[in-house]
Here is the input.
Amino acid sequence: MSKKIAVIGGGAAGMMAAATAAANGHQVMLFEKNEKLGKKVFITGKGRCNVTNACEIEDLFGNIITNSKFLYSAIYGYDNQAICSFLEEAGCRLKTERGDRVFPVTDHSSDVIRAFEKVLKERGVRIYLQTRVKEITRDALTGRVDGVLLHDGKKISADCVILATGGLSYASTGSDGEGMKMAEKLGHSCMECVPALVPFEIEETWCTSLMGLALKNVEGKLFVDGKEIYSGFGEMLFTHFGISGPLVLSASSYYASAMRKRKNKKKDQTAKAKYYLDLKPALSFEQLDKRILREFEENINKQFKNAVDGLFPSKLIPVMISLSGIDPEKKVNEISREERHAFVHLIKNLPMTITGTRDFKEAIITQGGIAVKEVNPSTMESKLVQGLYFAGEILDVDALTGGFNLQIAWSTGHLAGESC
Here is the structure.
């Protein structure tokens, strides 16, 4: 039997939900308050759109930070191969790059959106652009969803409603929390939302002097209250407020998760968060010590400040000399073994004190959202309101960079559309 289905939100999850529901013969209405579909999809991956990750499914789950078990049905039911097939069949050819990241061959995110628009049109989805939904309505007798009320006062009836309005990151794309308020009005709980995949703010002022310096092939370790909660290898960037780059963004999701858990346990004291950078991860402590000893022997009569040029980028040299505690005028043949070892330790563990993260304006995703305990993981339907479904970033699920968050959107959107 054909149903009338309203999808609120024309982002990744909403477009997938609408396309899937329409494929099953339903009358689908897609409501998007922006002037076009996929506004956030358009800017993902710096405009290239990292549509998914081609890794094994087990690895995919390993990159999900929050509530990965909740996503088993969604992802196993519609995995990374499925979205690749969907896009290829819709005319968007794909390629796989380093780290198994999948992009359109053209490097244009607009091709992903165009593929969805083509499918939505072919399947007869009615798209309402620049149309804001004010609230989701319910039948007074049964309590079941019976439609949506638009901001202009028009009531549109529907048998099911799929809420896919996103989180709070990149509010300019329409992710402003309206959908969460609609869900809360219907009795749902919203877990605290915090910025994730977001740069760190650092206490140490020397970071500012390194603004613009990018480092490749370094290792970063994140500690909260003395406990290591994340380590990763890759690229990072010094900024006017602290540090950013892929390595840092991944660490920030673990930091956000730790802060949320801390708050839930009602811990009052300020968390001590430190980030340690290993500038030479390819070398062990002993190997690096030998290399520095060799540098010193080759520059035996030079002052310390002039003997470390080969170890660091020029911008970093004065900072490392200052942090070493070694007199910069001291000749290298006068540096003690203890001083040298302390210098090696500094290179392997350059310490930074995290004071917090940047806000939602700079966050790639939102951590937090609709409590998953109130949503059926096998269908994405609300356990509290019959006929209400959720998909995408509005849910309290998130992952690391690399196409994993978009995969969550495709998978949950597909399951919600299928379940309707």
User: Anything to note?
Assistant: The longest helix spans residues 246-264.
